[in-house]
Amino acid sequence: MSYRPLASLGRCVPLLRAGLIAGIILAAVAYPIVAAAGIGAKVGAEFSEHKADLLRTTLPAETSYVYAADGKTLLTMFYEEYRQYTKLDDIAPSMQQAMVAAEDSRFYQHRGVDPKGVLRAFVANSQSGGVSQGASTITMQYVRMALRDSATTPQEVQEATAQTSIRKVREMRLALDVEKQMSKEDILERYLNSAYFGHRAYGIYAAAQIFFSKKPKDLTPVESATLAGLVKSPSEYDPVTSDQQEAIGRRNYVLERMGQLGYLSPEAAARASTEPLRIDQSDPRNDCASIPQRHNSLGFACDYLKNWWSAQPAFGENRLERIDKLRRGGYRIVLSIDPRIQEAAEKNIDAKGSTGSPFAHGVVVAEPGTGRVKAMAVNRTYSLDTSENGPTSNPEADPKVKANFPNTVAPLLGGGNLPGYQAGSTFKMFPMLAALDSGMPLSTAFDAPHRYRSEVYDGWAPSNASGAMTGRQTMWSGFGKSVNTYFVWLEEKVGADRAVRLAEQLGLRWRTDVDKAQASPEKVKKWGAFTLGVSDATPLELANAYAAIAADGRYCEAIPVLSITNRDGTPATYRTPAGLEREVAKPRCRQVVDAGAARAATDAARCPTGDRPARGSCGGWSTADSVRGTVGRPVAGKTGTTDSTRAAWFVGYTPELAAASFIADPDNPFNAVGDGQSQKPIDAVAKTLRDALKGQPTRQFTPPPDRMVG
């Protein structure tokens, strides 16, 4: 009998150990009883079946797409992982074959786990002293990716990706169960849509787009082999930033395997391996800052969309969950911005703020009866790059702080966390509407002095802007001339608290500490200056509040979308507190004030614009008498200026549209725009309404009922 030298026997020990371990793992996978005695003890059959069913129904994260109102013009996308799910029939056969050749040549022969591959990998890895081969089949890889993508906690992510024997056994067990529930074609389709190819390309659609600027169905065998070769190590074989020889070598290996498996003839495989590596790279846009330059102004509407989305309970329990849903949910979102109205708004704002002026001039247009935002334009460029911006105009800020012009992503028009700008006499609408809704008629008269001392508001004594406003006023003339003392008196009669709460019902929110304190239950009844517009508001809020008046007192929440559809093409929905299922993109409206009161407010609001009310007299002059002639149809509205004309406003509306325009310095509210610029918001609204409604039939306002006239 002969014996092997001890050293030779020692070299066999790793191989014996490798085979033993492989056998144990295979036994653990195939036989649950054996698994209970060893490494598979933690992988229960019940857990496996449940997870396999979950993986069968769970789809990977997908990119959300944002379109213009035509539903065709792609503006931008939102994603953490750039991916668009693609059916197997829409993926080139060569791509399917290349992936099998590269990752799992026995894919169509095994049942989820390849015993030969497991043994081969353990032997090879033991001989090399490291990990030179993997034993994962395409099914096992899909299980790993699906577990990661369906994870809801960091612990689940860790368990799905940890380099442990337990994880490997779990994958094998789940792979066997998945193959009982899904066909090979379904598994390959899911795998191709889950695999990572590098350059933020998740799934074959993204890979085909990013590396070759084409659809998956149009990939050639050479391109397919290139992409399939990336999955093993996206960074090592990256054909864009790494040594292309590595990528070519890996591609040629895949082509060779395709030839060996009969997917290509040996001649075709050899010929393909001589081709140069041709990359046609594209960089998919992501988020609002990547909207094409020709649609740059829509960056502000896109930003409003994100802020609106993050406040919708339909998409999650909190802001982070909702934004994650936007970036992973595969939604198709169509904005409500009307291209024609947007163009009109952009044309009619002062362009100086986009070059050298600190004053922001913007317009927001809302649709009465729906709350849909039809235009958002401001004289700024939507951009994250503020390197060329000058220093801020705020003297209290650090000199290194940049101004918000010409580039900014700040939500200057509303919909974000900025408080807005003091809105001046545009707020007179709220006590007037509250008074009308309480039953006081338009003819309610008061001998308004130049200065009025209020006993209700502890001796506060505001005055009018002009001595010409002194005298007997009604709601028509008081609103048309913007008589401060009349409206302080009117607010006393109806109650400041009622005016403030009505403004809240119409969508206004208090964001500064001062405004919150004044609107508190303890102080609101003494907030006399509310009627003079000392509170901050945004153009979005005021456009939508006045839109409710145009809609006969029916307030609709501001909304930036026409439609939102899920990845399966169904409308995105939410459940109301009453248990009703509603579409997220549908208008959400409620009657806030009596329709007759709203019509009466509109009749008075025709006075500031130079229009003629249906039932009363404007008193001979108004603050914006050019508007009616510019718009060329019935129009209502209100001017607003603050102390020293630090900000100037105009809010106007027709039965079809409501628009709010402002001019102010967002960096420094004490930087007065001056009287010379107060006409700009008036002209911007009038011209925008004119251009937006050009060619449309003229609609009339409904006159107020007799009970509201007096």
UniProtKB/TrEMBL annotation:
Transmembrane segments: none
Key words of the record: Carboxypeptidase, Cell shape, Cell wall biogenesis/degradation, Glycosyltransferase, Hydrolase, Multifunctional enzyme, Peptidoglycan synthesis, Protease, Transferase
InterPro entries recorded: Beta-lactam/transpept-like, Glyco_trans_51, Glycosyltr_51/Transpeptidase, Lysozyme-like_dom_sf, PBP_transglycosylase, PCN-bd_Tpept
Catalytic reaction list: Preferential cleavage: (Ac)2-L-Lys-D-Ala-|-D-Ala. Also transpeptidation of peptidyl-alanyl moieties that are N-acyl substituents of D-alanine; [GlcNAc-(1->4)-Mur2Ac(oyl-L-Ala-gamma-D-Glu-L-Lys-D-Ala-D-Ala)](n)-di-trans,octa-cis-undecaprenyl diphosphate + beta-D-GlcNAc-(1->4)-Mur2Ac(oyl-L-Ala-gamma-D-Glu-L-Lys-D-Ala-D-Ala)-di-trans,octa-cis-undecaprenyl diphosphate = [GlcNAc-(1->4)-Mur2Ac(oyl-L-Ala-gamma-D-Glu-L-Lys-D-Ala-D-Ala)](n+1)-di-trans,octa-cis-undecaprenyl diphosphate + di-trans,octa-cis-undecaprenyl diphosphate + H(+)
Penicillin-binding protein transpeptidase domain mapped to chain residues: 362-667
GO cellular component: outer membrane-bounded periplasmic space
Ranges where the Glycosyl transferase family domain occurs: 75-258
Tagged with keyword Transferase: yes
One example GO MF annotation: peptidoglycan glycosyltransferase activity
Top-level taxon: Bacteria
GO BP, sorted A to Z: cell wall organization; peptidoglycan biosynthetic process; proteolysis; regulation of cell shape
PANTHER family: BINDING PROTEIN TRANSPEPTIDASE, PUTATIVE-RELATED (PTHR32282), PEPTIDOGLYCAN GLYCOSYLTRANSFERASE (PTHR32282:SF33)
Family that this chain belongs to: In the C-terminal section; belongs to the transpeptidase family.
Protein name: Membrane peptidoglycan carboxypeptidase
Species of the source: Micromonospora sagamiensis
